[in-house]
Structure formats: C-alpha cells, structure tokens
Amino acid sequence: MITKVDAMVDMMDYLEDKYGNGKKAYIPGDEIPVSGALIDMNDIRSVVDVALDGWFTEGKVSKEFGKSLCKYVGSKHVTLCNSGSSASLLAMSALAENCAEGRKVVTCATGFPTTVAPIIQNKLVPLFVDVNPKTLNADREQLHEALHNRDVCGVTMAHTLGFPFDAFSVAETTKELGKWFIEDIADALGAEINDKRVGTFGDASILSFFPAHHITTGEGGAVFANNGRLKKVIDSYCSWGRDCWCLPGSDNTCGKRFGWDCKDLPAGWDHKYTFTRLGYNLKITELQSALGLSQMRKIDKFVKARISNFEYLLINLAEFQEHLEFVEYAFYANPSPFGFPITVKPSAPFDRNSLVKYLESKKIRTRPVFGGNLTRHSAFKQQKIDTPYSLSGSDYVMNNTFWIGCAPMLTTGHLDYVIETIKKYFERKGLWTKQ
C-alpha cells in the first residue's frame, strides 16, 4: 500500500529529475530553441502550493506579484491580465477614451500584430512609420515627424527584441504636444535607458508573460501606469467594465458600496454591479501569479544570462560581418536581449532563406522579426491605415533579417553548436576556412 509520505517522496524525486534547477546541458542532437520558459522545482512548488489553497482567481498572491513587478520596473501601479495582447488592448482602450473616432496612432510597421490591432478595435487609424534596419526600432526622424501630425492622438511602440529605442525623447515630445504614449516592453523586461528601466517612460506600459518572454506565467500580461486615475480606467476595462475596483472576493473597498449616487440606477444600487464601460474579463489567475512571482525571484539572473549569451554569439560571429549584419544599439541603452538578430547583406552570395533553411535543418530554430512589414499582411490590407512613408526599411528587414535564441536555458554548449554550424555553412559556401 502506498502511503501519502511515499507519494510525496515520489513526487519530489520526479520534480528533481524533471526540473532540477531548470537548466540542462547540451547533448548533441538537441534542438536549439529560439526562446522558452526556464522552469525549476521552486516554480512548480509555488503553483502547487496555491492550487492546494483552493483560491484560483486573482487574490493575495497576484497582489504580491504585482508589487514585485512594480518595484522591479519602477512603476506605481500595475494591472495584471491574461495575456500581453490583452495588456495592449487594455492600455489602448483606456488611453483612447478621449480620442475621436478616426484619429491616428503612430506605430512601427515592423512589429507584432496585437500591438496594432487595438488601435483599429478602438476605431482609430494606425499611422505606420518605417523601421531602421540597423536598430530594428522605428526610424527616429519619421517617428517625431509623425507625432507632430495634428490628427495623431498618441503612439504605441515596442522595444524590438529587447533593444531600447529612445523612449525618453518620445515621452518628452508627447508630453509637450499633449499626446499619449504606450511603451511596449514585452521583449525588453530589465532593459535600461540612461540607467532607468524601460516601462517607466510611457503613460502606460505593457508586458507579456508568454513562455517565450523573460519571465512566464504560462499565459499572462501586465499594464503599468503611474497615474492612479488611468489605473482605475484600465482596471475597469479588465473587469467587465465595472466602476468598482474591488478585487475578486473583496467587498466594500470604497467604504460606501451601497451609497453611490448613480444616475438612472435605483438608490442604494450595489457598486460592484455598476458598469460604466464596455469592458471584458481579462483578469489573471492566482495560479499564473504564483508562477510569475516565483520567476521574478530569478529575473536578475535571467537578464544577466540573456546579455551574456548575446555577447558570446556576437563575439564569435563577428568574423562574418562581410556578409552578415548584427543589431546596433545606442550608447544610452542597456539591452535585455529577447533574441539574437542576424541580417544577411544583399551583397552576400546567399540569401536569408538559404541560411535559415540550413539552420533549421540542423535543429537550430529561427524566427522572422515578427510581422516584418505588417502592411503587407492581409489582416491589415483590409483595414483603414495610414502609410505616409515608403516603409522600405520594413521590407528590407522582412526580406533579410531573422533571429536565433539567446534565452537563459541555453548553455555555452548550445551556443558553440550554433556557432560551429554557421561556420560550416560558410565553409560549404567557400567563404570560410577552418584555421
């Protein structure tokens, strides 16, 4: 007969064997992922502990997770939600409340679709600026020119692949012009601009906890804000459009639950069931927050590993710069690399597809730079968009650039295999000779 003690011992042995410290040595034949979650025993224990408590929707652990995120990023407020895409929708919906239908929002054509979709979903028009292929971020001159367009009410912009754009100058310009700024840090948690963490420059900032990102909750996202009133609006959209700000399971946080004077509603109507917006239910769960909180305890280690892996690849692939270009970032930026981007120069005697297919055949996974040029995708061709610029840089990135992994689970063994595989590719092309 198996006792509870035996079962517990078996479970601990299983966790130790499967997860250990989360990091596994490279074994020849292993796949080299572009990204992925680094999960260890403590992460699993944290989720199981919360499950055993029997409280599954947003609660005390979510509150602690939110505090940890705010402290790390440097923001006063955070709203946790069920995905990074939901975070984008929440931030855009809140900041677009005072924008007339048909006004424009500046964004980069080289990006991810759910950064742009909420613009259209809020009956606004994306104004696309081009990308700078060297930095993979928006063309600075076009961005600031577009912000001065009188039809523009705001901007939403991502730090592509963890390499910061000059968010400080965007913040200054939008404040001067009376426009708003959503800073997308989904790829860039831990990156800095002038020694200040990204996520603190926008009116709102958005983050994703999808397993590919710096930390994970399985699925999940967050919206940061320093303005308490904006935080309340974001919370309302996240929680069915309620006017009430009580967390699930909480009552009467305002102290006058049945004492609000709400026009057209009965006297004494329950404030928890007063709806002032067309909202959603986009809340995070307690189980997700437990995983996120556990992951936050390792965020410094994760960011350090990403930087180290990026630099290792850069140093060891530098000899191929005659045919390959690598990302540039400004003196003021401390990146938190999400991936290692590689651009095949048009002058090279091979193209991007050839190199990508070779790497994939050797189990080294690759990705394009998200949508490349979003305006070329059918989803956006069907929408009202504004393209005042040629977007030639976005086409260049779409045709010539891809990225490989530098995530924390990758060891020197993994990276050495990547480097040796690229060297073999060049050797086969007669472009490199082993010393």
Q: Your description of this structure?
A:
- The protein is of the alpha/beta class and 435 residues long.
- It folds into 2 domains: 44-296, Type I PLP-dependent aspartate aminotransferase-like (Major domain) (Aspartate Aminotransferase, domain 2, 3-Layer(aba) Sandwich); 299-428, Aspartate Aminotransferase, domain 1 (Alpha-Beta Complex).
- The chain has helices at residues 4-18, 41-53, 60-73, 84-95, 113-121, 140-147, 167-177, 228-238, 286-296, 299-317, 352-361, 378-381, 392-400, 412-428; strands at 77-81, 104-108, 125-129, 131-132, 137-138, 152-158, 180-184, 192-193, 196-197, 204-208, 221-225, 324-326, 333-334, 340-344, 367-368, 401-404.
- The chain has a 7-stranded mixed sheet with strand order 1-11-10-7-6-2-3, with helices on both faces. The protein has a 4-stranded antiparallel sheet with strand order 12-14-16-15. It has a 3-stranded antiparallel sheet with strand order 9-8-13, with no helix packed on it.
- A hairpin with a 2-residue loop joins β8 (192-193) and β9.
- α2 (41-53) runs antiparallel to α9, α3 (60-73) runs parallel beside α9 (286-296) and α4 runs parallel beside α5.
- The protein starts with a helix and ends in a 7-residue tail after the last helix.
- 46% of the residues are buried.
Low-pLDDT stretches: none
Spatial strand arrangement across the major sheet: 1-11-10-7-6-2-3
- Which oligomeric form is depicted? single chain
Question: In angstroms, what is the radius of gyration?
Answer: 23 Å
User: What is the number of helices?
Assistant: 14
CATH topology call of the largest domain: Aspartate Aminotransferase, domain 2
Sketch the major β-sheet.
7 strands, mixed
Give the distance, in angstroms, between the N- and C-terminal Cα atoms.
64 Å
What portion of the residues fall into strands of 2 or more residues?
A: 5-15%
